[in-house]
Amino acid sequence: MTYEEARKEAEQILKGAEVPDAALDAWYLLEYAIQKIEKKETGRTWYLMNRKESILPGTLLYYQELVSRRKQRIPLQHLTGEQEFYGYPFYVNEHVLIPRQDTEVLVEEALKRKKEGMKVLDLSRVLAAPYCGMMLADLGAEVIKIERPGKGDDARSNFPIVNGESAYYMNLNRNKRGIVLNLKSQAGKEVFRKLVAQSDVVLENYRPGVMDRLGLGYEELRKINPAIIYASVSGFGHYGPYHERAGYDIVGQAISGLMSTTGWPDAPTRTGTAIADVMGGISCCVGILAAYINRLKTGEGEKVDVALVDSMVSSLEIINIIYLATGKIPQRIGNRYEALYPYDSFQAKDGMLVIGAGNDKLYGLLCDLMGKPELKTDPRFTSNNDRVLHHADLKPIIEDWLKDWTIDDAVQAMLDKGIPAAPINTIDRVVKDPHIAGAREMFVEVDHPKAGRMKLTGNQIKLTNHKIDTFTPAPLLGQHSKEVFMEKLGLTEEEAEALIASDAVNG
Cα separation of 489 and 112, whole Å? Predict the structure, then answer.
C-alpha cells in the first residue's frame, strides 16, 4: 500500500464515521505517523514527491491505530499530543482544554484591554516628587496619589487658583488617581501596607526619617514586598551631615552653587522656575526606571535616594569643570557662556535675542552676514578662545549691527545662513509658537470637574510607537478612594464606604 492509498483509505473511514474535516484529519494523522515512526520531516512537498512509494509496515500499523481512535471521536490534538497556539506548540492531553482559533481572538482582545504596567503609590507633595509621579503617569504607569485627610497636598492652595482649584496642583498631578489615607492611624497604615503588597513603587518626599517614624520606611516595606522600589526625593538625601535639613528649591539653588553664577554681577539670582525641584523630579524618575528595569531582570527591589542638592550640582557641568580644572571660581556673567563666544543675549531694535555661534565656522558666517568679514581675521577674535577672552569688545559690535533689526527678522536672517539664534520669548509667544505649541504639542487641554477646561504643560518625551496623547485631570481630594479600595482591596461598595468613614481615612 502506498502513502496515498493509505491516506485515501483513512479519509473514507473517517467520512463513514461522520468525523468533521475527515480529509484534513486523515492528512494530519498521516503526517504525524510518518514523523513519529520514520523520523522524517514531512510536508506537502515531501508527500507529493513520495505519495506513490510504499508505506512502511510499522508506519501503516501506527497510522491505522490513530485513524481508528479518531473514528471514536477522540480529538485530533489528544492523538498527536500537540496544538499550536499563538505560533507556539503546546502539549495537550485529555486533561487539557484544547486551545482553538477563537481562543486566540479572545486572548488578543483581553490583551488589548488589559493595562498591565508599573504601579506607583505617590505620597509626595508640592513639586519635586509630584513632578516625578507626573512623568511616570504620563508615560503609562498607574499612579495612585495618596493625600492626607482634610487638606491634602500643600500644593492644592498654591497660586494660581481657578474656580477654587490650584492650577499649580492640576499641572503636576494629571493622569493620577487620588485617594485619602490617614497614615497616622493604625487602620490607615494597614490599608497602605496592603496597597504596597501589590505595587511596584512607593514615591515620597518627606524629610528623611518621617516614614521610618511612621513604621513605613524602606526596611519595613520591603518585608511586605521584597521587590518594592522605594523612591525618595529630599533636600539633602538620606545620609550625610545635612540629611535632616528641610529641602526647598531656593535652598538647592543656593547651596549647590547655581545662584552664585546666575544673573548679573550685582546680585545672585534664582532661576525663574524651580529648577532644583524639576531636576530632582527628573532624576528620581530616571532612578525609578533604572531600578524597575533591574527588577524585571533580577526580581530585586531597590531604594532610590535623590537629593535636590545633588541634582543641582550634577547639572552645573561647565561651572564645576572650570573650577576643578583651573582653580578659577566662576562668577555671575549674565547670559554669557564661559566656554564659547558669541554665545550670549543681544539687544535688537524691539527686544532681545540669543545667538549661539559656538564654533569658528558659525562665527565666520555671522561676520559675513553682518558685512564685516574683517572680524574673522581680527586677532582679538580669531579663535573661540580669543573671542571668549575679548567678549566685551565683540558684543557691542554685534549689537550695533542688530540695532536696525527686529528680533524676528534678525533671527530669520541668521537661521537662513545656518547660524543658531532664537528670540527671547515671553510665555505668551511660547504658547502660540507653531513648533512648540503646535507640532510638538507642549500644551495640552483637559476637562477638570471644577476648574473646567484647562490648558496644561505637555510632556517633553516624544515616543514614536506609544504617543503620549491621553491626559486626564488631576484628582479632586479623595476622588477615587472608593473605586481604588474596591479594586485593590476587593471590598464591596458598602465596605469601601465604611472604610472611607473610618479613621483609616479621616483624621
Answer: 24
Please tell me the predicted confidence (pLDDT) of residue 466: 86
pLDDT profile of the chain (507 residues), mean per 10: 93 92 90 89 83 92 93 88 74 74 66 72 98 96 97 96 96 98 97 97 97 98 97 97 94 97 94 96 98 95 98 95 95 93 97 96 98 97 96 98 97 98 96 96 95 95 88 96 96 96 90
Which contiguous run of DSSP H or E holds residue 24? helix 22-38
User: What is the rounded distance in angstroms from the CA atom of residue 260 to the CA atom of residue 320?
Assistant: 12
Active site members: 277
Helix (H, G, I), strand (E, B) or coil at 99: coil
- Alpha-helical (H) ranges within 114-176 are 128-138, 167-172
In this prediction, residue 82 carries a pLDDT of 82
Residues 49 and 316: their CA atoms lie apart, in Å, by 74
Note whether 334 and 341 are within 8 A (CB). no
- Specify the DSSP class assigned to residue 285: H
* Alpha carbons 360 and 367: distance in angstroms, whole number: 10
- Which residues, in sequence order, are CB contacts of 308 under 8 Å at separation 6+? 128, 233, 234, 235, 236, 247, 249, 251, 252, 276, 277, 279, 280
Set of cell numbers at residue 326: 583651573
The DSSP bridge partners found for residue 121 are 144, 202
> Can you give the length of the chain in residues?
507
What type of residue sits at position 61? L
Backbone φ, ψ for residue 486 (5° rounding)? -70, -45
Please tell me whether residue 382 adopts helix, strand or coil conformation: coil
CB contact at 8 A, 147 and 134? no
Record the cell numbers describing residue 21, joined without a space: 474535516
